[in-house]
Input
Amino acid sequence: MDRDSRHRARRRARRAAPALLLAALALVTGCSSSSAPKAGSTPGSGASGSATAVAGGSAGTGTSITVTEKEYSVTPERTQLTPGTYTFVAANTGTVEHALAIAGPGVAAIQTDAIAPGGRAQVTVTLQAGSYELWCPIDGHKALGMDTHVQVAAGSS
Output
C-alpha cells in the first residue's frame, strides 16, 4: 500500500469512528423508564412467564393476587390484605406496554420489566401492616391514572 492509499484509509477511518461510536452507544444503553429494581416478566410474545423477584426479605411464592393493567388503570383483585407473602401477577389487558411497581413499608420500589399487550409478569413481596402503592412505571402512565393502593392490616382479607 503506497503512502496516498494509507492516508486515504486513515481519513475514512476517522470519518467512520463517530458513527460507529454512536451506534455502539445506542446498542448498549437501550431505553428505560425507571431505575427501580426489576422483577421478571414475559417476553414480548405475551406468553405467561414465571420469573419472580422477592422483596422484603422473604423467599418463595405467596398468595396470588391478579392485578389487571390497561389504558389507564391498575386494578388489583383485592385491595384489603393481611400481612404475609403475596405474588402479584400483572396481566396487561391493554394495547400498549405496561409494567407493575410496588412500594410501601418494608418494600423499596420494585418493578417488573415491561409487559407486552396480552402478557403477564409477577413479583413476590412480603407485606406488613400499612399502605402499599401499586403503579405503572412506564413513562407518564402513573400520571394518567395507573396508580392505586392496597391496605394491609391484621384481620383484613
Observations:
- Helices lie at 3-29.
- The CA atoms of residues 56 and 107 lie 5 Å apart.
- The radius of gyration is 22 Å.
- The longest helix spans residues 3-29.
